Every structure is written in C-alpha cells, then in structure tokens.
Amino acid sequence: MLQISAQWVRLKPFLNLFWKTFPENPINAIRFFPKLVRDEISDHGFVLFVCGQKVLEDALEASQGIGLKPFLVLGTLRGFILKKDFLPRSEDIDFGLLSEDFQKKHLIKEILLKKGYKHCIDDAWQLQLVHPKFPDLVIDFFHVYKKNGCMVISGLTDDHKMLTSCYFPPETFYEFCMVDFRLRKVLIPSDPEKFLSVHYGEEWKNPQRKFHYRYERKNMKIEAISPDNPEIREKV
User: Fold this and answer.
1) Which of 2, 5, 129, 204 is most exposed by smallest CB count within 10 Å?
2) Interatomic CA distance for residues 196 and 22, integer angstroms
C-alpha cells in the first residue's frame, strides 16, 4: 500500500500536467506523457512538445502572413539541426528578424494579441509573447542587427540590470534556406552549424546539454549595466 501511495505521489504532478495539456493536443499529450514520466523531457519541454505545433503555426502565420521573413535561431535552431524537432529541455520558440523586418514587430504583436497571447517583452532587442494558457511557453522574436562589422543578437537579463549581446560573423546571415520544421516551411541560416558553433561552442552537438539562455554563450559580451541608463539605447 505504501508503495502504491509513493507511486501516486510521484505521478500526480505529471498527471496534472497531462490533463491540463490534453485538450490542446490529445494525440501529442498521450504520445509524450511516457517521456515526461521517464524524465526524458522536462515539464516545460512536455508543454512545448504538446502545444508547440499550434504556437509555431501562430507565430509563422502572424509574421509570414504580413510578408516578414522570420528564421530559426538559438535553441530552436539547435533542436532542428540535432533532432528535426524541439529539444527535450526547451521551453520556447526562437525566431530572428533582420532589422527591416523587426521594425514591423508591432504588427506581429497585434495579430498574436488578438489570438489571446499576452505581451511580455517589447523593446529594441526582443519581442516576446506568452501562450494564453501556459505562461512558461513563449514565442521570442529577436532583433538581428549590424554593429561593428558583426551581426548581433542582444537582450536584457531577467532582472533588467544588464544588457548582453552575442556577436556573429556577418556571413552567418548573408543567406537563408527554407526547411521543413514540424510540417511548416521556415527559414534557417544557410550555415546553421557555424551559427551554433560560434554561439555555443562544440557542446551544441550534445542534445542533453542545456545552456543558460543569457550567460552560457561563447560569443556573448556585456554591453552595459542598468537599463534605466539611456546609454544602453545608444549602444544599439
């Protein structure tokens, strides 16, 4: 009896998450539940695998539908190259937008807000929107811009006290190619392995390796402290 109780205690949070996500995509909830129980995917990863298809479609329809050209970057690009899917410990979907397109991010925001998404971040470097039902499932659109002869992806730390930037060789974003990702057509940098090696180092090839999204970056530089300082804006 004690063994059954212990098993129930262990499974209860998994079952709660299962039933919460089941209405969104019953097939995927059933498909990935055993992986969740075996700790092959994280709680956040389970939500992404179950609900991520619809989120991906919403993001692409919102951006591609108005003529923009989003492309996979960061963890989502890494997942595509390694698994042709999301990574098991991921919790978001990462897109890049070149400056010309990022200037129109307000249009993406308007479309997704009408679909029930909630605005979380909207600044010079990033647009982030949160899933209507799962606050840990987010869509990120990062500004990829030119600076000092490089292409750069920047962002504020969670406490909003530090601006960090990741620098890439300019040729990383010279060309893009179209790929099939979760039944959708989406762009990626034409040399994705170079992007990933510059950003993560050679450890990017280990699918179980989870990198801190702000601090574990090989090409990261701290640009400024205190976002209240107007000099931060001048650095971009």
Assistant:
1) 2
2) 34
Q: What is the DSSP letter of 188?
A: E
Phi and psi, residue 214, nearest 5°: -115, -30
Structure token digits, residue 184: 């959708």
pTM, 2 dp = 0.89
Phi, psi of 229 (to 5 degrees): -80, 120
Q: CA–CA separation, 125 vs 116, rounded Å?
A: 23
72 touches 95 (CB < 8 A): yes
Which residues have CB under 8 Å from 173's CB, separation 6+? 96, 98, 144, 151, 189
Count CB atoms within 10 A of the CB of residue 67.
9
**Phi and psi dihedrals of 165, rounded to 5?**
-135, 140
> Using CA atoms, how far apart are residues 230 and 110, in angstroms rounded to an integer?
27
Predicted pLDDT of residue 214: 64
- Indicate the length of the chain as a whole number: 236
**Which residue positions in the chain have pLDDT lower than 70?**
1-10, 208-209, 212-215, 226-236
Strand ranges inside the chain, DSSP E: 71-72, 92-98, 118-122, 126-130, 138-147, 150-156, 162-168, 176-181, 184-189, 220-225
Give the separation between CA 204 and CA 81, rounded to whole angstroms: 10
